[in-house]
Amino acid sequence: MTKKDVIKILYPYIRGPLVAEYLDITVSKMYNFVWDIGLKKHPKFKHQMNSALAIEAGERTRFKKGQVPHNKGKKMPQSIYDKAAPTMFKKGNKPFNTREENAMSIRKDTKGRDYCYSKVADSKWVLTHRLVWEQANGPIPARHIIRFIDGNTMNYDLSNLECISMRENINKNTIQRFPKDLQQVIKLKSKLNKTINNGKKRNE
Hints:
204 residues; alpha+beta; three-stranded antiparallel beta sheet; two-stranded antiparallel sheet; 5 strands; flat
């Protein structure tokens, strides 16, 4: 595998300077190659980077530990309270967008996979496939998960669910189940992460 092949694999998911350092080439040389072939960052990686930048930018305006709010211990003036009172939530009031009992919702996990959630009480939602399993078989044992037999996270029919231990799940997801070329990519990324972590430890 050539250095250009490695760049094609790693650049969409890892910061450019780290890829260049791993390959022992200049950053400009790597970016020139990326520019020539029109290689882009993966949307998920870009989202993570943008989120990190937003968090960093917001730190400047956040309350610091030990900082006391200017209105601590002060009561709201009655004149302001009287104006705000008509728009305040009353005890027992529910927001207009409160979902009905037994409602269902589709949400994505960190890997972009769809999962179905069921509402079991106000402000309490649970994964539908876990709920279906527990309704038929009782509580899920500790250190066990509910697995989709066909791999379809939206097929939460009881016949498509099985309860297995976390160890069993790890064995089912071992690297050996992937094609040889993909195994090579996974090993390469693991090696790169070790190189990065070792560099951080030396700089600490």
